[in-house]
Every structure is written in structure tokens, then in C-alpha cells.
Amino acid sequence: QVQLVESGGGLVQAGGSLRLSCAASGRTFSNDAMGWFRQAPGKEREFVAAISWSTGYTRNADSVKGRFTISRDNAKNTIYLQMDSLKPDDTAVYYCAAGRDTANFGFWGQGTQVTVSS
């Protein structure tokens, strides 16, 4: 069973930056990917970014390309989401996820709130 713990959320002004972290425990070789999703009030959860532990392959949602960067530290079993040029539309609960590959996720963290003020 994979456990995921997010940290780093908070309140920031538009144009500012935040870095989210997600520490994974209980990871197995069958769970090669990690990702970030977000859910804003009244909206469905949406994909943000994903990364492969083994290859470092990444993919990002169009809405965050050029602003958000996902990275990993294999030694620490931790992934990061560097969020720059934040916009009020980025306000959401951000969830860390683990899965078989960058398109399939089955384990979820508890979420961390990110609020961007205008």
C-alpha cells in the first residue's frame, strides 16, 4: 500500500510562487509514476503534471505549461511541483497521486490547499 503525504500549500499573491512536495512510502516497482491533480470548488478534479520514477519522463497539462515544473528525488521518494507565475485560477486543493504509469493512478494523498489572491 502506497502512502502519500503532501506539503507546501498556502496563500500567495498572483504572480508569486509555491513549491509543493509529496513524500511516498510503501512504493513498489509496479508504481512507476507520480502525479499532481487539483480540484477547485465546484469543479471536477483535473490533471496537472506527472513524472516517471524510472525514466524521468514528464507530462503537463496545457494550462500549466511554462509555469509549473514537476521533478523527483528518487533517493527521498519525493516529488515536487514548482509553481511559478501563479494565477487566481490556480486556486484549488492539490492532490498527489501514485500509479502504474503517467496515465494511470490508483493512490491518492489527502490534498493541500493552494490559494492565489488577485
Task: Tag the structure with descriptive keywords.
118 residues, mainly beta, 7-stranded mixed sheet, 4-stranded antiparallel sheet, 53% strand
What does this structure look like?
It is a single chain. By secondary structure, the chain is mainly beta. The chain is 0% helix and 53% strand. Strands 2, 4, 5, 6, 9, 10 and 11 form a seven-stranded mixed sheet that branches. The chain has a four-stranded antiparallel sheet with strand order 1-3-8-7, with no helix packed on it. The termini are far apart.
Helix content: under 10%
Shape: globular
| Model regions low in confidence, pLDDT < 50 over at least 5 residues | none
Number of strands: 11
Element order, helices and strands? EEEEEEEEEEE
Please state the average pLDDT score: 94
| Beginning-to-end CA distance, first to last residue | 40 Å
How much beta, percentage-wise?
A: over 45%
Integer-rounded radius of gyration: 13 Å
Question: Pairing-aware structural class of the strands and helices?
Answer: mainly beta
The major sheet is characterized as: 7 strands, mixed
How many alpha or pi helices? 0
